[in-house]
Structure prediction request, 304 residues.
Amino acid sequence: MDEFKVDIEQGVIEPRELSATDRFKFKCYPGIECFNKCCSAMRINLTPYDIFILKNRLGLSYDEFLIKYTQPASIDRTPLPIVVLKLLDDEEKSCPFLLEKEGCSVYTDRPSTCRYYPIGRVHMKKVDKPELREFFVLVKEDHCLGHKEDKEWTIDDWRQDQGVDFHDGVTRDWLEIVIKAKSLGMTEFNKGSLDLFFMVSSNLDMFRKFVFESRFLDSYQLEPDLLDKIRSSELDLLKFSLRWLRFALFGEGNFKISDEAKVKASERLKKLSEARKQQMQEREQKAEKDMAHMQEMKKNRTDS
Ligand code: SF4
Ligand code: SF4
Prediction:
């Protein structure tokens, strides 16, 4: 459905587009009869900030967290590689952070998907329009009794209450990349771009090595203040990595770079634009072929 939502059957999504000010009724609390029923058999895409807070919460390195708690996947309708939460191999396919009595053991650091629930955020593109539209939907699963409660929210209130505004703020550049990739469809990113995307999206330890132990700082001229910040603060390094990724993939944003890095960036953008062009041509050829086929069939029907 979107970059945050779990794999939910379409039938449980209310067929109504919601805006930030639209209202819905919902309340979830320990003690509700369905407590914990939503924490199994689902897919949870992990954003870079989800991984950052969870691995810090658990006191693990990125490698340790990735091996123990994740498995590879890709973002719906894109070739972009990410990781999703690895569920337990029990009958219910439970979340590894779920405790029977207490509920979520990482509640204050839970992923964005869990925070949004029962709201889904959707980006949709009309065939004849280049831009994506954003709206929200309400997910109503039979087992979830929170919808029968009287507490009323606007979508904006809910997002604020659940802390997703802050999460989305940290990952803003990453979300822009994902949205853009969705609007391009399955356009072929080259392997180098996908590897960069995966490294930045899932493993900040690796990105740190990439910055401080490769020729990165020869190519990118960073202000001393910024350099100090990303050396001393993991969160600043994370934000920087996402800003840089947007620049590396789409040339968006401001970075002072060496001539060599300029050449590399322009080669990458050229390849992406060629891939896009080729994809458009293939689409047009296919549309023409389909049209010719339909006309042929129509003619045959009329002749007979
Ligand atoms: S992280 Fe917490 S809220 Fe999210 S599925 Fe797991 S137990 Fe449930
Ligand atoms: S009310 Fe819904 S979200 Fe809350 S515990 Fe029950 S099933 Fe999960």
